[in-house]
Write a structure and sequence with these properties.
heterotrimer, A mainly alpha (343), B alpha/beta (251), C mainly alpha (402), B: 251 residues, alpha/beta, Rossmann fold, 6-stranded mixed sheet, 4-stranded antiparallel sheet, 9 helices, globular, C: 402 residues, mainly alpha, ABC transporter involved in vitamin B12 uptake, BtuC, two-stranded antiparallel sheet, two-stranded antiparallel ribbon, 5% strand
Chain lengths: 343, 251, 402
């Protein structure tokens, strides 16, 4: 029982990331009809927003501290972050510690801006081109974005810790009446899951309860008719792309403490996210979320040692295997609509 | 027995009875038109004939063999060719290549791994394709990119491609839809010529009464998924039931 | 000639000449000149030009003709590599054995993967091939390490049976791949004045396969089969209603292109008998997509150009560093020189991927026909008046959008 709960929990954080990326992919595909291979790169850029903010916050100047001396008896030179000067020492340390949550605020405008620039500057010209061209040009864009990040931040992963307060683990088992230390779960992963639920909820609420969202949903169902109604669909597309980019970016920001950001993390997630989208059903938002969590959890269960002993290697291939089976038996995926991308 | 025998064919889409007990017999070497108002089930019926849809009930026999459960290409190999509402041609290929493909299909069947000979080395096929292009008055366009032709020319090419398969039954789905008057008349003339000069059965679905009455030997009127009447064009013209179906004059 | 029409025969002869004379063409700079680092005529790189050329030519038979975009072709490269090394281990060091087994093995895999993946088209097909390749990669890395030797990669060892040869040479070293005794690494260097030209046995083995592969590709392109494949890309519906079954056509194309990839894998291990799982990684599949598109998908020569271009970039462009740039721009005032070097810095050396990505995007956006279309447009400009050229451009750019 404990092991099952542990695996379930372990599957949630990966599942959350899949769900968030797949949600953005589906938003873009459903509204714009574009297959965005650069979406993983947006996730990666989000993670690097956290890295960048950390670098900005820790920008320091050297101060000679007369109260301390090094082993030669000279006054010690210490690096003091500028934020300390502005907010005072205690507040400064707190801000640096809370860098990742703060990066959310920092990342939203950046990601939206990047999304809008990409849509206006590039994607817009590919609405009427074949899907293969869309895949290719966004694939190229992904390479470019990835290489830009690599040029600035290097090829090595950059550890970006969560705030001290969340660094420990949470004894989930005690809550459920098990012995202590049987089911422990890192706080940050729990937060990641809750955060992703909030984002997913916000996106759905936005689509459900705003006029803007209504038009977008109508556009996803029947693009031509909405266009005929004289609604300025272009502007909405741009905004949708911005939102999708922000969702991917936020997923990346919060993921930074779980996996140290590196320049190719986007590509790694992208491949799986596409599988998630296809399993969920191209163009179905609930399908994307559902499939994201399902596959995350499935992967986690497949990594149990008991399972691996029975079917060696299953943890490595389970997601692909499921995708292949679903594509062959239910070509529209779990919740897909008819006629999407069946050309 | 006609070459095409449709018996008690029914098809439902959810709650909608698209076709109910359709019986139809198309005689060899005639032109049989199927007309009816929008939503009468004409396209559904056609799709049942060519393997795109499988009817829920009934049977469709072509030249004594059932077509049900066969794939479109198998049905085509049996001798049924179809002309679409919007011309379906190989837009990326040249006009001549377009014309050669059905001839290859007739000679080599549904699949042949003919990967080492040259297309233009196949003199017999080239000859037949050139011949058909001449018949269609398109010989001067043979090296054109098919997608760059006018709609009328695309239609001509499509009909030519179907004919070069030497089908026993040619199905036409609103062949003049969306055409200018001149193109429509050209197409009618072409079809008349085909009808008169070849041993071929034609089944045509059409909206335009002008086209129907210029070509058809027999007409079936379809309304709400069932055949209303079947008769010669002269008798159909004045038939009260037909007027009712078309004009909605309820009795 | 050889059953080709005049234009194709000319193209074929040009490719043959380029391949045969590559050791000269790729080493235009004297060895002691400062430009010698742009010489690409060393055996290792020349072999890679041809191997990836073969890979791309094969990929183009699938993607260029049928429009089915496979993101999993690296799987066949990997399967071919493993099959080749196993042949070296079990039977003997003759490269023909390895190459034949590579091609056959990848054909078997291609039949299975193609049969399943081709049940879907469009993006679904791409995802299915991607899933299969990633699965092969993951399995090769983990469970199948008995066959693939996992992370280390599969290589020769002293304990191999090598039934048709010796497990170990008399001097205790491992035997090397050869063609009836001619070692693949054997290289003759021809010195003419300050120039040096390398003639490598392995390169010319690759050359034979490249020329044969290219010839076969021309024949396929011009055959009724090739025409059918283009028809599949153009209009599947019409194919079906013309009495043609598209499935075996696409499967045949898939298997043929998989066999080319297997051949490339077999040649790779013939040059260097080592096979690793990373050869199956999807970025490798992406690389062959880049090559084909960059050069010009659907054209005969495009993939060859694309492969050469990318491999040249990877090996030569990446060697340019800041010092070289400073050397080039030394004529400028210091401030300007530094500024120029600073601007160019991210695009050179290790940053060549960035340049490649940008180039690739530009090609997809502005030149859907790749380098070949670019060349044709330039030729067009010379031939016609500018006005006609512009008209030609709009027609060409209109077409791929349809």
């Amino acid at each position: 029982m404990e092991t099952i709960i542990i695996q379930l929990l372990n599957g949630l954080d990966k599942g959350s990331a899949y769900a968030l990326i797949a949600l953005g992919l589906t938003l873009i595909f459903g509204t714009l009809g574009v297959v965005n291979f650069a979406h993983g790169a947006l996730f990666m850029i989000g993670a690097f927003c956290a890295v960048t903010l950390n670098r900005i916050l820790t920008l320091s100047h050297t101060v000679i501290d007369e109260t301390q001396t090094d082993f030669l008896g000279n006054p010690l030179k210490v690096e003091v972050p500028y934020v300390n000067g502005i907010f005072g020492e205690e507040m400064g340390a707190f801000i640096i510690d809370w860098n990742v949550p703060l990066a959310i605020i920092f990342a939203i405008p950046i990601m939206v801006a990047i999304g809008v620039i990409i849509e206006r500057g590039l994607i817009r010209h590919f609405y009427k081109r074949p899907h293969a061209d869309q895949i290719l040009v966004t694939f190229g864009l992904a390479i470019v974005l990835q290489e830009i990040i690599k040029a600035f931040y290097g090829a090595n992963p950059i550890p970006t810790p969560a705030p001290d307060a969340f660094r420990g683990s949470f004894d989930f088992g005690v809550l459920l009446g098990f012995d202590p230390y049987t089911v422990i779960y890192p706080y940050w992963r729990l937060i990641y899951f809750i955060f992703s639920m909030i984002i997913i909820g916000a996106v759905f609420a936005f689509l459900q309860f705003t006029t803007f969202g209504m038009v977008v949903r109508a556009g996803m169902a029947d693009r031509e008719t909405v266009g005929l109604l004289g609604i300025d669909i272009d502007r909405r597309f741009t905004i949708m792309f911005g939102i999708a980019a922000a969702v991917a970016g936020l997923a990346g920001v919060m993921y930074a403490p779980i996996n140290s950001p590196n320049y190719h993390m986007g590509m790694d997630f992208l491949v799986l996210s596409f599988v998630v989208v296809v399993v969920g059903g191209m163009g179905s938002l609930p399908g994307a979320v559902l499939a994201g969590f399902l596959l995350g959890i499935l992967q986690s269960f497949a990594s149990m040692s008991a399972v691996i002993e029975t079917i060696p290697g299953i943890n490595q291939v389970v997601i692909y295997l499921v995708a292949i089976i679903i594509l062959l038996t239910r070509p529209r995926g779990l919740m897909g609509r008819k006629g999407v991308m069946e050309d | 027995m006609g070459i095409l025998e449709v018996k008690d064919v029914g098809k439902r889409f959810g709650g909608l009875q698209a076709l109910g007990d359709v019986n139809l017999s198309v005689q060899e070497n005639t032109c049989h038109a199927i007309i009816g108002p929008n939503g009468a089930g004409k396209s559904t019926l056609l799709n049942c004939l060519i393997g795109k849809l499988i009817p829920d009930t009934g049977s469709v026999m072509f030249a004594g063999q059932s077509v049900l459960g066969r794939t479109p290409y198998e049905i085509c190999q049996m001798g049924i060719s179809r002309v679409f509402q919007t011309p379906e041609i190989f837009g990326d290929l040249s006009v001549l290549e377009n014309m050669m493909i059905p001839i290859f299909a007739r000679r080599d069947g549904a699949f042949a791994l003919n990967a080492l000979s040259s297309v233009f080395g196949q003199k017999d096929i080239l000859e037949q394709a050139e011949h058909m292009l001449e018949e269609m008055n398109m010989a001067d366009k043979r090296h054109m990119h098919a997608a760059s032709m006018s709609r009328g020319d695309k239609r001509r090419l499509e009909i030519g491609m179907c004919l070069s398969q030497q089908p026993r039954l040619l199905l036409l789905d609103e062949p003049t839809a969306g055409m200018a008057r001149a193109d429509t008349n050209n197409t009618i003339d072409l079809l008349k010529e085909i009808k008169n000069e070849r041993d071929i059965t034609i089944a045509i679905i059409e909206h335009d009464m002008h086209v129907v009455f210029s070509l058809a030997d027999r007409i079936t009127v379809l309304a709400q998924g069932t055949p209303l009447v079947e008769d010669t064009p002269d008798k159909i013209k004045g038939h009260p039931k037909v007027r009712e179906a078309y004009l909605g004059e309820s009795a | 000639m050889l059953g080709l029409d005049k234009k194709d025969a000319l193209l074929f002869l040009i490719v043959v000449a380029m391949v045969v004379l590559a050791p000269f063409i790729l080493n235009p700079f004297p060895t002691d000149s400062s430009l010698a680092q742009f010489n690409a005529g060393y055996p290792d790189l020349m072999q890679r030009f041809l191997i990836f050329g073969i890979f791309a030519v094969g990929f183009n038979i699938l993607f260029g003709l049928t429009g089915y975009l496979s993101f999993g072709h690296a799987a066949f490269l990997g399967v071919g590599s493993y099959a080749g090394v196993w042949m070296f281990k079990l039977l003997g060091m003759n490269v023909l054995l390895a190459i034949v087994s590579s091609v056959l093995m990848s054909a078997v895999f291609a039949v299975v993967i193609g049969y399943i993946s081709l049940r879907r088209s469009g993006i679904y097909f791409s995802i299915l091939t991607l899933a299969f390749a990633q699965m092969s990669y993951a399995l090769a890395y983990s469970v199948l390490s008995g066959i693939t030797n996992g992370e280390t990669g599969l290589q020769l060892s002293h304990n191999d049976p090598r039934v048709l040869g010796a497990s170990v040479n008399a001097d205790g070293s491992l035997p090397v791949p050869n063609l009836f005794g001619l070692e693949m690494r054997a290289t003759e260097t021809l010195n003419i004045g300050p120039w040096a030209f390398d003639f490598n046995a392995g390169y010319y083995v690759c050359a034979v396969f490249m020329i044969a592969g290219f010839y076969l590709a021309i024949r396929i392109f011009r055959s009724p089969f090739g025409m059918m494949l283009r028809a599949v890309k153009s209009n599947q519906q019409r194919m079906h209603y013309t009495g043609l079954n598209t499935r075996p056509y696409t499967l045949a194309a898939f298997v043929i292109s998989g066999m080319y990839a297997g051949l490339a894998g077999g040649l790779m291990v013939s040059m260097d008998p080592l096979a690793g799982a990373e050869r199956m990684l999807w970025t490798r599949s992406g690389e062959v997509v880049l090559m084909t598109i960059l050069g010009g998908a659907g054209t005969l020569i495009g993939p060859v150009l694309g492969a050469g271009f990318i491999k040249y970039f990877e090996n030569i462009f990446s060697k340019i560093n800041d010092n070289v740039l400073h050397g080039w721009f030394a004529f400028m005032p210091d401030g300007l020189e530094n500024a120029v070097v600073w601007i160019l810095h991210p695009f050179i050396g290790k940053g060549w991927h960035l340049t490649l990505g940008i180039l690739f995007m530009l090609v997809v956006i502005f030149l859907p026909g790749g380098l070949v279309e670019g060349g044709q447009r330039i030729m067009g400009l010379f031939r016609r008046s500018p006005k006609d050229g512009a008209k030609q451009d709009t027609e060409a750019s209109k077409h791929p959008a349809e």
